[in-house]
Amino acid sequence: MVDEAKSGATPLEGDGKRILMILGTPKTDSFCHALAEAYSNGARGEGHVVRQLKLGEIHFDPILRDGYSQGQALEPDLLEAQRQIHWAEHLVFVYPVWWGGVPALLKGFFDRTFLPGFAFKYRNRSQLWDKLLSGRTADLLVTLDTPPWYFRWIYGAPAHRQMTRTILGFSGIKTRRLAEFAPVRPSTEEQRQGWLRRAERLGVRA
């Protein structure tokens, strides 16, 4: 399900960017949702068109059953998601880090949609590949319960490397900004309000 602006009317596409926000948590209500709304409000205030794709509200099998050896029919929601990714100039991914990586739902979304012929294409008899989503940029808004310094220097930031390099970068999408909001669990209301203002500023600079 792709949400347009909350005003009830589809925004006109003019000079603003076409932005697709992908909310990569299975939860129906979380701090990620608040960050997504703050960023969207900031971007829309600058005239950008923002659409939201909430993975927790769409229907698809997140398991790529046979890898690439056999075709697996895409559900209607995934076909629509691919159309929205093609429409977008700029992607915004909002998600928590769980067990050092992205949530299984978000990883399953990539497994099922970022397919050969859509996100990349291997070249015959070559170790090189074509990046089929080139020309797009991305912002990542990431929540963690781990302090950012510990996640980076002790754990090696595996979720960040996976997203920026082996998924988005592999497909030609250039990560422009990666914003961490952490640690969430012990945070105060004052801290969270500050993070929401920061997310809105990121949207303004989309």
Automatic annotation (TrEMBL):
InterPro entries reported for this sequence: Flavodoxin_fold, Flavoprotein-like_sf, NAD(P)H_dehydrogenase_qn
Domain Flavodoxin-like fold: 17-196
Domain of life: Bacteria
Pfam families assigned to the protein according to its UniProt record, in alphabetical order: Flavodoxin_2
GO (cellular component) term, any one: cytosol
SUPFAM superfamilies: Flavoproteins
GO molecular function: NAD(P)H dehydrogenase (quinone) activity
Similarity field: Belongs to the NAD(P)H dehydrogenase (quinone) family.
Name by which UniProt lists this protein: NAD(P)H-dependent oxidoreductase
Source organism of this protein record: Aquipseudomonas campi
Lineage, top ranks: Bacteria, Pseudomonadati, Pseudomonadota, Gammaproteobacteria, Pseudomonadales
